[in-house]
TrEMBL record:
GO BP terms in the entry: valyl-tRNA aminoacylation
Gene: valS
Stated name of the protein: Valine--tRNA ligase
Subunit structure: Monomer.
Organism of derivation: Henriciella mobilis
Coiled-coil stretches: 927-989
Amino acid sequence: MLDQRFDPQGAEQRIYQRWEEEGCFRPSGDTSAEAYSIVIPPPNVTGVLHMGHALNNTLQDILVRFERMRGKNVRWQPGTDHAGIATQMVVERQLAQDGGNESRASLGREKFVDRVWDWKEQSGGQIINQLKRLGASCDWENERFTMGDRHDPDDQMQEAVRKVFVDLYNEGLIYRDKRLVNWDPHFQTAISDLEVESRDVKGHMWHFKYPLAGGETYTYVEKDEDGNVTLEEERDYISIATTRPETMLGDGAVAVHPDDERYAPIVGKLCEIPVGPKDHRRLIPIITDEYPDPEFGSGAVKITGAHDENDYGVAQRNNIPMYRLMDDQARMRTDGASYEESAKAAQAIAGGKVATAAEVDALNLVPEAYRGLDRYEARQQVIADIDADGLMIEVEDKLITQPFGDRSGVVIEPMLTDQWFVNAAELARPAIEAVRTGKTKFVPENWTKTYYNWMDNIQPWCVSRQLWWGHRIPVWYGPTLIVEEKGGERHLRYDIDVPRTFCANSFSEAEQQARQYYDSFGLQPEDVFEAESASEGKQAVSLAPRAVVLWQDEDVLDTWFSSALWPFSTQGWPEETEALKQYYPTSVLITAHDIIFFWVARMMMMGIHFMGEIPFHDVYIHALVLDEKGQKMSKSKGNAMDPLELVDEYGADALRFTFARLAAQGRNIRLARQSVEGFRNFTTKLWNATRFAEMNSCEFGHDLKPGDLKLPLNRWIAAELAKAERAVTASLEAYKFNEAADALYQFIWNVLCDWYIELIKPVMNGEDEAAKAETRKACGWVIDQTLKLLHPFTPFVTEALWEQTEDAERKRPGFLMLQDWPRYGNAWADAEAEAEMAWVLDTVSEIRSTRSVLNVPAGAQISASLIDASDKVKGWAAANEVPIRQLARLGSFAIADVKPARSVTIASGEDSIALEVEEFITPADEIARLDKEIAKLEKDIMGTEKKLSNENFVAKAPPEIVEENRERIREWTATLAKLSSAREQLKDIS
């Protein structure tokens, strides 16, 4: 016997444990069956389940359970991402909180990495356990971690990452370069754009004079739109505006737009950077470039290519030297030669002297007065010094958009650094073509444009990070051999400033490469050693003349590098495994829009390049989960909801069905606690319907064929069930989760529970044993089939009902989640039964509606008459007289040729039904009440129509708000028609 209610807290863990113990999540292993695979977007190993995770994994699980029941060989590949910077930060913070003297620096690299692995093994599985609470039916036995296995240096996941790097390097698609990156001064590493958070902060714009070289002057002229001169004066300077005065020290040029006539007389001239020792202030050229906007500020822009993204582009286009001013902590540089010596060298470069990038980078153009200062301390000193020289024009308050590290919280510094880059443009071409030709499709389709926009403008991908936790870059360095001729003799010497690169899968391979290199010079080293660090390696070179010392690159790879291999590395690549053959390409990827470029595009590039095939056929981009007011959830706003708290209170099924019901393509989800509570009530309603069936001895666990049912009522519910199956199947195939959930909700709540269960009560209480026997079979079968259809959405309650309704004589054939998905086709279509029951439902609904409109007391047993109907309808009325009376609360339901006097008439299809209500109401009072309701509705309709006629509102309001207003008008208009009709009929009998 079913419990009175379903207890999620008690049942969910028990059911999930049984699924796992019985291996229900494993692939079927049936190689003859169609394969269906999804790779989970691997959550950070530091992660805690949030609403985005909950939505994403609910949608994946719905598809996986659906396809598994359809007989496919399903693998849902789970795993976690090592999350380089996030995990390193967690462990460093833990070390600090422990109160000891240990830190990352004091431990050293090897011991610190061991400590991270310890943390991962102790605490890294939290989010996996949380996903299990949600019901995720992943192939947990095949769980993967992007860092592979701690205890196996030859681990396949690690091998895959090394092989990809080495292969790309050998193909010339990975290279070392000095480019501008997002530099986090707190973590002292480059970070990706995704890890940068833009914020608007209060700041200033300083306007300075850059004096022209040699005191030269020019006529500065400003004109209005009509060409009239509004300002004309002689100037010996060019005006520059900047929000970052400390970067002026690294200026390489001043740029103006080629069409800006104000500066035409001085283009090609030199101007002086107005800061630093006066005897050694640098002169820089004034150039033209399309970047400056003549309408913004003075129209002249200082170009500091090493510390500004836009300036970097200008400097590259115009061959302007880029001078780095700061160290890894964003303090002003202290290394290198004196300012005087560096400034002279820079001046020579500005005059045309050719210099290498390394020579330019070595120049420290920070005057001694500013060296070692924090960038903001230097800013204040620079401003004060320029002001003291009388070269400040003005300061204006300004709202500035600044980049912050999303984890460190510090201002990100654009920094010119040596990093490893992937030639993403080359890899992107086939990835773009794959989408253009339809091999991979985005759903909704509009995200295709976003993908193209990013991919068509793709920049080199910085893949190196200055961290210790991550995949170490598989590159070793050794001294470069320089051949020098002295006195007719050939001499060899080591150069460690520009070391030789050996890219290899292992140190032993790097050693072989090194031996080949040094042997080619006739130098045959006795041994090749590996140093623990670059500094140790460089020191050891001079100490081992008959040996060669190599040192490995100290950087690690960007987390997204290993994640880009996820669809094939998780299946055993680079080995040609059976799993790889079966489950690559994957069927669909479900993810959020914010990582289309960072992850989706890179998986496309890597998958096509290394596998020769797309990584997934479809990419479904789900919406954001917002609060009920449409605002982004955040702890600071106080509107964040914890999915696990909702699971604790309402059960996982309620949250899952809420997500599915609200997951309309292209529309953000507005999540309210009341919605989850409402769908908890939905599962309760199904539970109660099943309890009713059980208490009435309905037969579960058997099959029915269309010819087994005779009663129109039972034939009708079977036809409705078949319609629901077709709708759910078609919707899930098209990733229309909301439409699938809505079809189930309408069938279960409205058709099965509100109508069928109520309609069979008279049968169950009647004397017709044959009808009761058929109905018991039909009801039990329909509920069984309903559990199958609902299972992908609400797996726990459906599995609980499946196992608890098992008949002692009819054992269930295993878990519900492993049953076959219903496939009815048109076998259960029954136009005759559907027409009859549609008339019954319409009749009851109209009577109920009219009772409500006319304010007839709920307990009043009114009389109703079917007027002048066809023989077919009379037959329907006679056959269904009892359920119609009971459901519509009628004292009698007769068939008549003439409408009774002083009755109101309603339509049921093409027929009329007269209701005798006069004795239960006061017509005059009801007319007065209806007049008020009609007036209010008319006012509401008019106000909303006025709002919708406002083009500004329609253009700016969210589409869902506009649609809500239109739906209100439709509903109000229908209600208004009913009220007006009722009022007219009341006038006739008053």
